Amino acid sequence: MDQWPQRVAPAAIDPEEELKRSAFCGLTVPATKQTIPEVSQYKTFAEYLEASVQHLHGAAAHPNDISARDSQEAELIILQQVQHECFPAELTHLRASKPVPSSSRLAALAPEFDNTSQLIRVGGRLRRSGDLEEDAIHPIVLDSHHPVTKLIIQDFDEKIHHPGAERVFAEVRRRYWVLRGREAIRHHQRHCTECRKWRGRPDIPKIADLPPARLRLMRPAFYSTGVDCFGPYQVKISRRTEKRWGIIFKCMTTRAVHVDLLTSIDTDAFLMALRRFIFRRGKPFELLSDQDTNFKGGERELQDAFSTLQPQLRAQLASQQISFTFNPPEGILNSKPLGYTSSDVADLDPVTPNSLLMGRANASLPQVLYPESEMLGRRRWRHS
Question: Where is the Integrase zinc-binding domain (predicted)?
């Protein structure tokens, strides 16, 4: 053991020679003073703004404690974030009071940096106008491809109820200058469901065939006859007054009209008027009547009377070989246009007798329903 070689201690090594120097590789992006939520989680700008206000004031903040000033500050932070993400180089130059590069997208706008709001605004030539607001004189510059800008366009489009692209573009430019804004608005409206509904053109229905009653050109007048009643009218007889109704027969082909008088609305009065009509105009092949209030009312009493009247009339007329048909409730005569109906959309609607009598083209009204508790209305209706 005495002859063993002595162990040589290793030489001391400087730790600086073994360790390599670390180098930082990264991208420095200017950040806003406060962070806001991710915009992709929200569908409207109002929801995104509300979430940003809540985020800046803490989750425990009550919505009733948030003021208008808080909402303005949150919106300002959102716009600052958008410009930091879209125009980082321009912000660096403008903060240093240098012009933006000639290759910048903002070079043609003569952009200016607003030290108060920390936003890039359009320079413009209205800086001496004292009547306009700051946003109208120097709009805030936004990139049309940013999600926040798309939500702002959507918000303007919904507030003014989905008009054309020019109207939305004019409203947006009162505060924001969106790069290629008109194209961005048109792109939004092409995918907006409500805008597509407003711009959609209705499908033109196929022209229906005329009913046979309108095409009996080789038949005599009143071969196909429409019938309707009108009234009542108060008629003075001696010292008393009585009700009288009018009945009108109309040829469905030639539109000739025959008018008669009814003493009451019942089967006998109608058959007597029909007999007088046949003596004067000849026997018709068919009679068509609408189910208006004169023949069929909304109340139970009139419905029962109509159901009783219809079989009796058909039985009486069947013996005379006259077909009797009730049409769906509609106006046969007074809804007909009194002149030429133009096919130009710019022309006014044609005038009908109902337009002169009732102030509207269609005389039909919604059926009146009286609740059980309203006995006064029921008594008035029975009295009428």
Answer: 149-199
